């Protein structure tokens, strides 16, 4: 891999690391994914930035529960939504 690449990855504690390929430690650690992307751009504006896709599982569960409640209150079959 080229040196002008960064990986943005979420840590177990919810913060984000900005790392070069095969690096032993992060170049930076930030609180949000957006801050991590900005930090990588500041370090090397010409670098390719690979961002880990992060899903908000709690939000997805909440939407599913809301849809289930709506289905019950309107009495629609599940296939209709």
TrEMBL record:
Taxonomy, superkingdom: Bacteria
Annotated spans, Disordered: 1-33
Matching InterPro entries: DUF2188 (IPR018691)
Biased composition (Basic and acidic residues): 1-14
Protein's name according to its UniProt entry: DUF2188 domain-containing protein
Source organism phylogeny: Bacteria, Pseudomonadati, Pseudomonadota, Alphaproteobacteria, Hyphomicrobiales
